[in-house]
Amino acid sequence: MAQAMRESAQAALDDAELQQRSGVANTLTFIGYDLLNGGRKPNVGASFVTLDDWDARDLGENSSQDFAEEINALGEQFPEAEITAANPPPISGISTTGGIEGYVAILTEGDTEALLLYMNELTSLANARPELQNVRTTLNTNIPRYTAYVDRERAKTIGVNIEDIFAAMGATFGRKYINDFTYLGRMWRVYMSAESAYRESPRNLSEVFVRASNGEMLPLNSVVRVERTTGPDSVQRYNSRPAARLIGEPAPGYSTGEAMAALEEIEAELREGNEQYQLFWTGASQQERDGKSSAGLAFGFAILMVFLLLAAQYERWTLPLAVLTAIPFAIFGAIFATFVLGLQNNIYFQIGLLVLIGLAAKNAILIVEFATLHRKRGISVVGSAILACKQRFRPILMTSLAFILGALPLVFASGAGAAARQAVGVTVVGGMLVATFVSIFFVPVFYQWIEKQVVVKRRKRT
After folding, report:
1. What are the DSSP calls for 163-190, one per residue?
2. Given pLDDT bands bounded at 50, 70 and 90, which one contains residue 370?
3. Pairing status of strand 132-137 against strand 176-183
4. Using CA atoms, how far apart are residues 335 and 318, in angstroms rounded to an integer?
5. pLDDT score for 203
6. How far is it, in rounded angstroms, from Cα 388 to Cα 390?
7. d(Cα 234, Cα 23) in Å, to the nearest integer?
8. pLDDT attached to residue 9
9. Which of 91, 90, 82 is nearest to 37 (CA)?
């Protein structure tokens, strides 16, 4: 039976079929290796596909994501197998595959059959959402298996020790630890197991013997009855509770955060009035959820540091506010450019926003600095703002355009890591364009308004 499973898995994971695909450099297949759940199983396999070099294929048609979708479509031609392709995780070691992943755990009483029904309903609703695709669970209760029943009364009657029956079955149909030995400076563990030909089917029970109390050797099938059933090949646990693993991918045009939010919304609807199950994120998804608030915290601290430094420089609390008014324009430009080009709100986008805080404030500092100098010379508030704009307009354009042109290669990047460079490039270029050509007209307005408020308060005090 196990050999037949391995042959079926080998037929489904055909290296020759994969290597004929456009853009494939080589493949490496392991039959019996469960990549998603871990461990060795006869009816599973994993293929690792290496694509051609970036320069040797058209990334518009032969990207890794397009190849994964092509393999998923190819898997539909094998109804007797379940074939799924996925990109590797963005951070090696945190997750098994890219996308989102988690566990649905049983919080109260329940069995795997009820859990599977809940998972099927959850995945069905999730795949119907536009933010999600390829949402699936690794729980499968239709795995064929055998359940062995020991006739304890008969074994006691004929003088066979129950422990000897279990030991013989475990050593023959499973494996048994023997000892360790040292070789080439390393410790090696020795296990004993029967050859595959002697553990293929229940008929092999007649070829395994145990010793009775009178010394007679009796076959196992005289005291063991085998019944063929179906059930889960393995039951995973999360926080010591039975759980099922959930895997999915964000649909094109959606981020992992949006996909996770959509799945949480579906899970919350299913949990209304039923607190038996709960979704827990793991791997990179858990890291993303735990660090969701850290981006806003870092952004807030960056603005606070700019404000405090400017307050120390100007020795006033109000002038830094005029400088900070340029930041919302830069953020709007970054968000608008990212939205128009269909990019995602990821970590690289957030890094670009942090860079924009300093870049947008730089232009405003040039205007506010010169306006402050003119005010000290006795020029009016409006006159100081207009004169500062005239004097610093050309330097602002020169420095800003130099930075924008220098960052354009990031926008049109290609090859390995292109997505990260494009995300940063589009963010800073879009933000700087708006900060340069729009905020330069609004910063003087905010400056003169803030400065007039200060003048009014001083007059009231005097």
Report:
1. HHHHHHHHHHHS-EEEEEEEETTEEEEE
2. confident
3. unpaired
4. 28
5. 86
6. 5
7. 36
8. 47
9. 82
How remote is the C-alpha of 136 from its chain's centroid?
15
Region of poorest pLDDT, from 45-49, 101-105, 117-121, 432-436: 45-49
Q: Kindly tell me the sign of the dihedral angle through the C-alpha atoms of 330, 331, 335, 338.
A: positive
**Is the predicted pLDDT of residue 4 greater than 50, yes or no?**
no
Decide if pLDDT at 76 tops 80: no
d(CA 421, CA 407): 10
Write out the two tokens for 167: 């030991």
Distance, in Å, from the CA atom of 47 to the CA atom of 41, rounded to the nearest integer, reads 15
The answer to whether 106 and 242 have CB atoms below 8 angstroms apart is: yes
pLDDT beyond 80 at 39: no
Please check the confidence at residue 350 and state whether its pLDDT lies above 70: yes
Exposure string over 275-294, b if 16+ CB within 10 A, otherwise e: eebbbbbbbbbbebbeeeee
| Pairwise CA distance, residues 316 & 357, whole Å | 20
**Mean per-residue pLDDT, 351-362:** 83
Cα–Cα distance, 248 to 124 (Å, whole number) = 12
Domains and CATH numbers, the chain: 1-85 (3.30.70.1430), 91-140+234-290 (3.30.70.1440), 143-231 (3.30.2090.10), 291-461 (1.20.1640.10)
For residue 36, which of 5, 82, 105 has the smallest C-alpha distance?
Answer: 82
pLDDT value at residue 329: 86
CA angle (248, 254, 257) in 5-degree steps: 70
SS3 content of the chain, % helix, strand, coil (to 5): 55, 20, 25
Mean pLDDT over residues 408-425, rounded? 82
Place of tokens 């940063």: 424
| HSE-up of residue 100 (Cα within 13 Å, Cβ side) | 31
The answer to whether 102 and 279 are in contact (CB under 8 A) is yes
The pLDDT score that the predictor gives to residue 180 is: 92
pLDDT score of 2 more than 50: no
User: Which helix H or strand E contains 396, and what residues bound it?
Assistant: helix 381-411
Q: Which of 286, 290, 303, 246 is nearest to 105 (CA)?
A: 246
